[in-house]
Amino acid sequence: MAISSPQAATFELEPWQDLNGTIVMVTGASSGIGWELCIDLAKSGCRIIASARRTDRLKILCDKINNLDVPENQSEATNHRVLAVAVEFDVSVDGPTIEESVRQAWEAFGRIDVLINNAGITGPIPNPLDLPDEDWDKVFKTNLRGSWLVSKYVCLQMRAFNQVGSVINISLVTGLQRTYSYGSLAYASSKSALNTMTKVMAMELGKHKIRVNSICPGLFKYEITAELVEKKFLTKIIAKGLPLRDFGTIDPTLTTLVRYLIHGSSHYVTGNIYIVDDGYSLLGVPLYSSL
């Protein structure tokens, strides 16, 4: 399939629209942001390693991607029709198990060019005095320790093969030290630590040509938040209190930024925390304070 003139013009102005042959591993791919990123990146020519605990959902996702009508000049489909594979992955387990899961993921296509650490949990939301220590540990095991260990073992492989790489951590505005919500002690702390991890890893992995960046989304409209964003009280708050007065959508708001951070045109970009939140975090107060 030939590229049309409008498509060619788009690729020239926005080269990150074409990521032909890039191998991307996405954790937490079974729903939400991870799911939509996998589909969008596959459309841009990427091979996808979709990882999560829910293998039934991963199978549906990979079947969907492998049946996409992707132009041959935007993928390597002529050589290998499989565009996505599923790898069962629990980022909260011990290091050796994560290392083995990374090895399986690496072998799926022979390398990993990009890692997107998207797996995360909110956990319970009691006040700090009622938060059980086991719930604190569970949140940190998934949101911070898991992201570090997956990054560690993927980046060790990148270094061993002298391979340029990109790590993208999906954080949240609660980790920005600008705005917080009641009941978010463990969650906000883990995301703040994830952003710090991003900066330190960027500093130390740069010599290996591995870039590390973080994205902090605000409130987006997608399957997990579908019912929430329809509630009248919330739409009223958005209309009154946020600078752009609208909900974001993962595509194109997040997908475009992720594509850019994958593409070679961002080769000089590392250690950054990207805020994509309609200006919500500028206000410095929880959403419901606008009521």
Automatic annotation (TrEMBL):
<dbReference type="GO" id="GO:0016616">
    <property type="term" value="F:oxidoreductase activity, acting on the CH-OH group of donors, NAD or NADP as acceptor"/>
</dbReference>
<dbReference type="InterPro" id="IPR036291">
    <property type="entry name" value="NAD(P)-bd_dom_sf"/>
</dbReference>
<protein>
    <submittedName>
        <fullName>Uncharacterized protein</fullName>
    </submittedName>
</protein>
<dbReference type="Pfam" id="PF00106">
    <property type="entry name" value="adh_short"/>
</dbReference>
<comment type="similarity">
    <text>Belongs to the short-chain dehydrogenases/reductases (SDR) family.</text>
</comment>
<dbReference type="InterPro" id="IPR002347">
    <property type="entry name" value="SDR_fam"/>
</dbReference>
